[in-house]
Amino acid sequence: MKKLAFLIAIIGLLIGVFGAIALTEAGQIINMPRDWVFAYFEYRQAFNLLIAVMAIVAIYLSIRFQVLSKKLNVLYAVGIVACLFFINIFAPEFWLRAQQYGAEFVNVEQADSRLTDDTDVFVLEINGDARAYPRDWMQLPHIVGDTVGGQETVMTYCALSNLPVAFNPRLNGQETDFRIIAQVNNNLIFTDRNSGELIQQVTGTAEYSQTELEQYPVQRMTWKAFKQLYPEGQVFSYEPNVFDELTLKLFDSALAPHYAGEPMFPTLSMNDDRLATGEKIWGVNIGDEAIAIAKSHFKNASQFVSLVGEQQVLFVHYTEFDTVAAYLVSDDGTDWANVDIDPYGKYEGGKLSRANLYSGMPWMIWSHWFPHTDVLL
Predict the structure, then answer these.
(1) Full residue range of the structural domain in which residue 346 is found
(2) Number of continuous H segments (helices) and E segments (strands) in the chain
(3) How many CB atoms lie within 10 A of CB 6?
Protein backbone atom coordinates (compact mmCIF):
# COMPACT_ATOMS: atom_id res chain seq x y z
CA MET A 1 0.00 0.00 0.00
CA LYS A 2 2.91 2.31 0.69
CA LYS A 3 4.23 1.75 -2.83
CA LEU A 4 0.78 2.45 -4.26
CA ALA A 5 0.49 5.70 -2.29
CA PHE A 6 3.93 6.79 -3.48
CA LEU A 7 3.12 5.88 -7.11
CA ILE A 8 -0.18 7.78 -7.09
CA ALA A 9 1.54 10.82 -5.57
CA ILE A 10 4.29 10.82 -8.21
CA ILE A 11 1.93 10.36 -11.17
CA GLY A 12 -0.41 13.12 -9.98
CA LEU A 13 2.49 15.51 -9.46
CA LEU A 14 4.02 14.72 -12.86
CA ILE A 15 0.71 15.42 -14.62
CA GLY A 16 0.47 18.72 -12.74
CA VAL A 17 4.05 19.73 -13.53
CA PHE A 18 3.54 18.86 -17.20
CA GLY A 19 0.44 21.06 -17.33
CA ALA A 20 2.15 23.94 -15.55
CA ILE A 21 5.00 23.77 -18.06
CA ALA A 22 2.70 23.41 -21.08
CA LEU A 23 0.54 26.41 -20.18
CA THR A 24 3.34 28.80 -19.20
CA GLU A 25 6.42 30.16 -20.95
CA ALA A 26 8.41 27.21 -19.58
CA GLY A 27 6.94 24.98 -22.25
CA GLN A 28 8.30 27.18 -25.02
CA ILE A 29 11.75 27.36 -23.41
CA ILE A 30 12.02 23.60 -23.93
CA ASN A 31 10.33 23.84 -27.35
CA MET A 32 7.27 21.83 -26.38
CA PRO A 33 5.27 20.95 -29.52
CA ARG A 34 2.31 23.20 -30.25
CA ASP A 35 -0.05 20.23 -30.50
CA TRP A 36 0.85 19.11 -26.97
CA VAL A 37 0.00 22.53 -25.55
CA PHE A 38 -3.35 22.66 -27.32
CA ALA A 39 -4.23 19.06 -26.46
CA TYR A 40 -3.47 19.55 -22.75
CA PHE A 41 -5.57 22.70 -22.67
CA GLU A 42 -8.49 20.98 -24.36
CA TYR A 43 -8.65 18.36 -21.61
CA ARG A 44 -7.36 20.50 -18.75
CA GLN A 45 -10.56 20.22 -16.69
CA ALA A 46 -10.30 16.44 -16.72
CA PHE A 47 -6.60 16.74 -15.84
CA ASN A 48 -7.46 19.17 -13.02
CA LEU A 49 -9.90 16.67 -11.55
CA LEU A 50 -7.47 13.80 -11.97
CA ILE A 51 -4.64 15.72 -10.29
CA ALA A 52 -6.87 16.74 -7.36
CA VAL A 53 -8.31 13.25 -6.83
CA MET A 54 -4.89 11.60 -7.03
CA ALA A 55 -3.48 14.13 -4.58
CA ILE A 56 -6.27 13.55 -2.07
CA VAL A 57 -5.89 9.77 -2.34
CA ALA A 58 -2.11 9.95 -2.09
CA ILE A 59 -2.16 12.19 1.00
CA TYR A 60 -4.83 10.04 2.66
CA LEU A 61 -2.81 6.85 2.09
CA SER A 62 0.41 8.58 3.11
CA ILE A 63 -1.05 9.68 6.42
CA ARG A 64 -2.79 6.38 7.13
CA PHE A 65 0.22 4.20 6.31
CA GLN A 66 2.89 6.73 7.32
CA VAL A 67 4.50 6.91 3.89
CA LEU A 68 5.72 10.50 4.16
CA SER A 69 6.39 12.76 7.09
CA LYS A 70 3.97 15.55 7.95
CA LYS A 71 6.29 18.15 6.42
CA LEU A 72 6.62 16.21 3.17
CA ASN A 73 2.85 15.79 2.97
CA VAL A 74 2.46 19.55 3.34
CA LEU A 75 5.13 20.23 0.70
CA TYR A 76 3.44 17.77 -1.65
CA ALA A 77 0.08 19.48 -1.17
CA VAL A 78 1.68 22.88 -1.78
CA GLY A 79 3.26 21.55 -4.98
CA ILE A 80 -0.09 20.27 -6.24
CA VAL A 81 -1.78 23.60 -5.47
CA ALA A 82 1.05 25.44 -7.22
CA CYS A 83 0.62 23.31 -10.34
CA LEU A 84 -3.13 23.96 -10.43
CA PHE A 85 -2.46 27.68 -9.92
CA PHE A 86 -0.11 27.88 -12.89
CA ILE A 87 -2.39 25.75 -15.07
CA ASN A 88 -5.58 27.70 -14.38
CA ILE A 89 -4.97 31.07 -12.74
CA PHE A 90 -1.47 32.52 -13.14
CA ALA A 91 -1.56 33.95 -16.68
CA PRO A 92 -5.26 34.78 -17.18
CA GLU A 93 -6.13 36.07 -13.71
CA PHE A 94 -2.91 37.18 -12.02
CA TRP A 95 -0.22 38.10 -14.51
CA LEU A 96 -1.76 39.12 -17.86
CA ARG A 97 -5.20 40.41 -16.97
CA ALA A 98 -7.24 40.92 -20.13
CA GLN A 99 -9.58 43.90 -20.27
CA GLN A 100 -12.16 42.81 -22.80
CA TYR A 101 -14.77 44.37 -20.53
CA GLY A 102 -14.43 47.50 -18.42
CA ALA A 103 -11.36 49.01 -20.09
CA GLU A 104 -10.79 52.72 -19.41
CA PHE A 105 -10.43 55.24 -22.23
CA VAL A 106 -9.46 58.91 -22.04
CA ASN A 107 -9.47 61.74 -24.55
CA VAL A 108 -6.43 62.99 -26.44
CA GLU A 109 -5.81 65.89 -24.09
CA GLN A 110 -5.80 63.63 -21.02
CA ALA A 111 -3.52 61.07 -22.65
CA ASP A 112 -1.11 63.70 -23.95
CA SER A 113 0.18 64.43 -20.46
CA ARG A 114 1.35 60.81 -20.13
CA LEU A 115 2.59 60.03 -23.65
CA THR A 116 5.51 61.35 -25.68
CA ASP A 117 5.25 62.25 -29.36
CA ASP A 118 7.24 59.17 -30.42
CA THR A 119 5.09 56.71 -28.42
CA ASP A 120 4.12 53.73 -30.57
CA VAL A 121 0.32 53.41 -30.81
CA PHE A 122 -2.04 50.99 -32.57
CA VAL A 123 -4.95 52.72 -34.26
CA LEU A 124 -8.38 51.26 -34.90
CA GLU A 125 -10.82 53.43 -36.86
CA ILE A 126 -14.35 52.36 -37.76
CA ASN A 127 -16.93 54.68 -39.30
CA GLY A 128 -14.87 57.73 -38.34
CA ASP A 129 -14.59 56.66 -34.69
CA ALA A 130 -10.93 56.19 -33.70
CA ARG A 131 -9.09 54.53 -30.81
CA ALA A 132 -5.40 54.57 -29.96
CA TYR A 133 -3.82 51.77 -27.96
CA PRO A 134 -0.31 52.71 -26.76
CA ARG A 135 2.03 49.74 -27.08
CA ASP A 136 3.44 50.13 -23.58
CA TRP A 137 -0.06 50.05 -22.10
CA MET A 138 -1.02 46.96 -24.10
CA GLN A 139 1.93 44.79 -23.04
CA LEU A 140 0.25 43.39 -19.92
CA PRO A 141 -3.48 43.17 -20.61
CA HIS A 142 -2.82 41.98 -24.19
CA ILE A 143 -6.59 42.15 -24.86
CA VAL A 144 -8.72 45.30 -24.67
CA GLY A 145 -12.37 45.50 -25.65
CA ASP A 146 -14.55 48.44 -26.67
CA THR A 147 -17.32 49.51 -29.03
CA VAL A 148 -15.83 51.47 -31.93
CA GLY A 149 -17.98 53.02 -34.62
CA GLY A 150 -20.92 50.96 -33.39
CA GLN A 151 -18.98 47.68 -33.66
CA GLU A 152 -17.89 45.38 -30.85
CA THR A 153 -14.09 45.11 -30.95
CA VAL A 154 -11.11 43.65 -29.14
CA MET A 155 -7.59 44.87 -29.74
CA THR A 156 -4.99 42.18 -29.08
CA TYR A 157 -1.22 42.59 -28.79
CA CYS A 158 1.53 39.99 -28.71
CA ALA A 159 4.79 41.49 -27.47
CA LEU A 160 6.86 38.57 -28.77
CA SER A 161 5.49 39.01 -32.29
CA ASN A 162 5.26 42.79 -31.80
CA LEU A 163 1.87 42.34 -33.41
CA PRO A 164 -1.40 44.23 -32.84
CA VAL A 165 -4.50 42.60 -34.32
CA ALA A 166 -8.10 43.75 -33.82
CA PHE A 167 -11.05 41.36 -33.97
CA ASN A 168 -14.80 41.25 -33.77
CA PRO A 169 -15.12 39.32 -30.49
CA ARG A 170 -18.18 37.35 -31.60
CA LEU A 171 -17.25 33.70 -32.13
CA ASN A 172 -19.76 31.70 -34.16
CA GLY A 173 -22.23 34.50 -33.39
CA GLN A 174 -21.83 34.08 -29.64
CA GLU A 175 -20.55 36.45 -26.96
CA THR A 176 -17.04 35.71 -25.76
CA ASP A 177 -14.86 36.16 -22.68
CA PHE A 178 -11.25 36.20 -23.89
CA ARG A 179 -8.38 35.46 -21.50
CA ILE A 180 -4.65 35.02 -22.02
CA ILE A 181 -3.26 31.49 -21.79
CA ALA A 182 0.31 31.39 -23.09
CA GLN A 183 2.19 31.60 -26.38
CA VAL A 184 3.42 29.11 -28.93
CA ASN A 185 5.95 29.69 -31.68
CA ASN A 186 6.50 33.20 -30.31
CA ASN A 187 2.88 34.22 -30.76
CA LEU A 188 0.00 34.78 -28.36
CA ILE A 189 -2.75 32.26 -27.78
CA PHE A 190 -5.89 33.16 -25.88
CA THR A 191 -9.02 31.33 -24.83
CA ASP A 192 -12.72 32.06 -24.87
CA ARG A 193 -13.99 31.13 -21.42
CA ASN A 194 -17.52 30.78 -22.76
CA SER A 195 -16.88 28.20 -25.48
CA GLY A 196 -13.57 26.71 -24.35
CA GLU A 197 -11.93 27.58 -27.68
CA LEU A 198 -8.27 28.48 -28.08
CA ILE A 199 -7.38 31.18 -30.61
CA GLN A 200 -4.00 31.76 -32.24
CA GLN A 201 -3.60 35.51 -32.55
CA VAL A 202 -1.54 35.70 -35.73
CA THR A 203 -4.01 33.57 -37.70
CA GLY A 204 -7.17 34.66 -35.86
CA THR A 205 -8.32 31.05 -36.01
CA ALA A 206 -10.07 29.04 -33.29
CA GLU A 207 -8.13 25.83 -32.82
CA TYR A 208 -10.91 23.32 -32.31
CA SER A 209 -13.70 24.60 -34.59
CA GLN A 210 -11.31 26.23 -37.10
CA THR A 211 -13.57 29.31 -37.06
CA GLU A 212 -11.82 32.47 -38.23
CA LEU A 213 -12.51 35.62 -36.23
CA GLU A 214 -13.43 38.67 -38.27
CA GLN A 215 -10.53 41.14 -38.31
CA TYR A 216 -10.57 44.92 -38.27
CA PRO A 217 -7.64 46.70 -39.97
CA VAL A 218 -5.10 48.24 -37.60
CA GLN A 219 -2.67 51.02 -38.49
CA ARG A 220 0.48 51.68 -36.52
CA MET A 221 1.78 55.21 -35.99
CA THR A 222 3.29 57.58 -33.45
CA TRP A 223 1.28 59.38 -30.82
CA LYS A 224 2.12 62.65 -32.58
CA ALA A 225 0.53 61.39 -35.80
CA PHE A 226 -2.58 60.12 -34.02
CA LYS A 227 -3.11 63.50 -32.35
CA GLN A 228 -2.95 65.21 -35.71
CA LEU A 229 -5.15 62.75 -37.57
CA TYR A 230 -7.71 61.92 -34.88
CA PRO A 231 -7.92 64.82 -32.38
CA GLU A 232 -11.37 63.63 -31.25
CA GLY A 233 -10.22 60.04 -30.76
CA GLN A 234 -10.15 58.06 -27.54
CA VAL A 235 -7.09 56.43 -25.97
CA PHE A 236 -6.86 53.21 -23.98
CA SER A 237 -5.49 53.99 -20.51
CA TYR A 238 -3.67 51.53 -18.28
CA GLU A 239 -2.37 52.12 -14.75
CA PRO A 240 0.19 49.43 -13.80
CA ASN A 241 0.52 48.29 -10.19
CA VAL A 242 3.87 47.57 -8.49
CA PHE A 243 4.01 43.99 -9.78
CA ASP A 244 3.14 45.21 -13.27
CA GLU A 245 5.98 47.74 -13.19
CA LEU A 246 8.45 44.97 -12.37
CA THR A 247 7.04 42.79 -15.13
CA LEU A 248 7.35 45.59 -17.69
CA LYS A 249 11.00 46.12 -16.78
CA LEU A 250 11.64 42.42 -17.23
CA PHE A 251 9.80 42.50 -20.57
CA ASP A 252 11.89 45.41 -21.85
CA SER A 253 15.12 43.68 -20.86
CA ALA A 254 14.16 40.32 -22.33
CA LEU A 255 12.70 41.71 -25.55
CA ALA A 256 15.73 43.80 -26.55
CA PRO A 257 17.80 40.87 -27.93
CA HIS A 258 14.61 39.25 -29.22
CA TYR A 259 13.78 42.27 -31.38
CA ALA A 260 17.41 42.34 -32.49
CA GLY A 261 16.91 38.92 -34.06
CA GLU A 262 17.70 36.38 -31.33
CA PRO A 263 14.34 34.69 -30.59
CA MET A 264 13.46 34.48 -26.93
CA PHE A 265 12.05 30.99 -27.43
CA PRO A 266 13.64 28.39 -29.76
CA THR A 267 10.40 27.53 -31.53
CA LEU A 268 10.87 29.24 -34.91
CA SER A 269 11.95 27.59 -38.15
CA MET A 270 14.59 30.32 -38.83
CA ASN A 271 15.34 28.89 -42.29
CA ASP A 272 14.37 31.88 -44.45
CA ASP A 273 17.30 34.29 -44.82
CA ARG A 274 15.81 36.67 -47.38
CA LEU A 275 15.78 39.31 -44.63
CA ALA A 276 17.65 39.72 -41.37
CA THR A 277 15.92 37.78 -38.58
CA GLY A 278 15.04 40.86 -36.54
CA GLU A 279 14.01 43.15 -39.41
CA LYS A 280 10.51 44.50 -38.88
CA ILE A 281 8.20 44.18 -41.87
CA TRP A 282 4.74 45.19 -43.07
CA GLY A 283 2.79 42.11 -44.04
CA VAL A 284 -0.53 41.22 -45.66
CA ASN A 285 -1.96 37.70 -45.76
CA ILE A 286 -4.99 36.90 -47.92
CA GLY A 287 -6.10 33.29 -48.12
CA ASP A 288 -3.08 31.17 -48.95
CA GLU A 289 -1.00 34.08 -50.18
CA ALA A 290 1.14 36.54 -48.25
CA ILE A 291 3.56 39.37 -48.90
CA ALA A 292 6.11 41.09 -46.69
CA ILE A 293 7.34 44.61 -47.39
CA ALA A 294 10.80 45.54 -46.17
CA LYS A 295 11.51 49.10 -45.07
CA SER A 296 14.04 49.46 -47.87
CA HIS A 297 11.30 49.03 -50.49
CA PHE A 298 9.64 52.29 -49.43
CA LYS A 299 12.85 54.11 -50.33
CA ASN A 300 12.14 53.19 -53.94
CA ALA A 301 8.45 54.13 -53.88
CA SER A 302 6.22 55.55 -51.18
CA GLN A 303 3.09 54.30 -52.96
CA PHE A 304 2.76 51.11 -54.98
CA VAL A 305 0.43 48.22 -55.79
CA SER A 306 1.23 44.58 -55.20
CA LEU A 307 -0.75 41.45 -55.99
CA VAL A 308 -1.57 39.16 -53.03
CA GLY A 309 -3.19 36.10 -54.52
CA GLU A 310 -5.86 37.55 -56.78
CA GLN A 311 -6.24 40.76 -54.75
CA GLN A 312 -4.59 44.05 -55.63
CA VAL A 313 -3.25 45.77 -52.50
CA LEU A 314 -2.17 49.41 -52.47
CA PHE A 315 0.56 50.28 -49.98
CA VAL A 316 1.06 53.92 -49.03
CA HIS A 317 3.80 55.36 -46.83
CA TYR A 318 2.62 58.71 -45.50
CA THR A 319 5.97 60.35 -44.91
CA GLU A 320 4.47 63.32 -43.08
CA PHE A 321 3.06 60.99 -40.43
CA ASP A 322 5.65 58.21 -40.82
CA THR A 323 2.97 55.54 -41.06
CA VAL A 324 2.08 52.88 -43.60
CA ALA A 325 -1.44 51.95 -44.70
CA ALA A 326 -2.67 49.21 -47.02
CA TYR A 327 -5.84 49.35 -49.09
CA LEU A 328 -7.79 46.86 -51.16
CA VAL A 329 -8.11 48.13 -54.73
CA SER A 330 -9.72 46.78 -57.86
CA ASP A 331 -7.94 45.95 -61.09
CA ASP A 332 -10.03 48.38 -63.13
CA GLY A 333 -7.27 50.11 -65.03
CA THR A 334 -6.76 52.87 -62.45
CA ASP A 335 -3.13 53.82 -61.91
CA TRP A 336 -3.38 53.48 -58.14
CA ALA A 337 0.31 54.15 -57.62
CA ASN A 338 -0.31 57.74 -58.71
CA VAL A 339 -3.72 58.43 -57.19
CA ASP A 340 -3.72 60.91 -54.32
CA ILE A 341 -4.97 58.95 -51.26
CA ASP A 342 -5.27 60.83 -47.97
CA PRO A 343 -4.43 59.16 -44.61
CA TYR A 344 -8.11 58.29 -44.12
CA GLY A 345 -8.21 56.31 -47.37
CA LYS A 346 -10.16 58.98 -49.24
CA TYR A 347 -9.50 59.98 -52.82
CA GLU A 348 -11.33 61.93 -55.51
CA GLY A 349 -13.46 58.93 -56.45
CA GLY A 350 -14.48 57.81 -52.96
CA LYS A 351 -12.95 55.95 -50.02
CA LEU A 352 -10.89 52.77 -50.12
CA SER A 353 -11.32 49.79 -47.81
CA ARG A 354 -8.30 48.99 -45.70
CA ALA A 355 -6.47 45.67 -45.84
CA ASN A 356 -5.50 43.83 -42.68
CA LEU A 357 -1.93 45.07 -42.38
CA TYR A 358 0.47 43.43 -39.92
CA SER A 359 2.97 46.09 -38.89
CA GLY A 360 6.19 45.63 -36.97
CA MET A 361 6.55 41.82 -36.93
CA PRO A 362 10.16 40.60 -36.90
CA TRP A 363 10.96 38.70 -40.08
CA MET A 364 11.84 35.51 -38.17
CA ILE A 365 8.27 35.32 -36.81
CA TRP A 366 6.44 36.44 -39.96
CA SER A 367 8.35 33.90 -42.10
CA HIS A 368 7.64 31.12 -39.60
CA TRP A 369 3.88 31.65 -39.66
CA PHE A 370 3.71 32.54 -43.36
CA PRO A 371 6.47 30.48 -45.01
CA HIS A 372 4.77 30.92 -48.39
CA THR A 373 5.33 34.69 -48.26
CA ASP A 374 6.71 36.81 -51.06
CA VAL A 375 9.08 39.63 -50.16
CA LEU A 376 9.52 43.10 -51.59
CA LEU A 377 13.03 44.32 -50.79
Answers:
(1) 280-376
(2) 11, 23
(3) 16
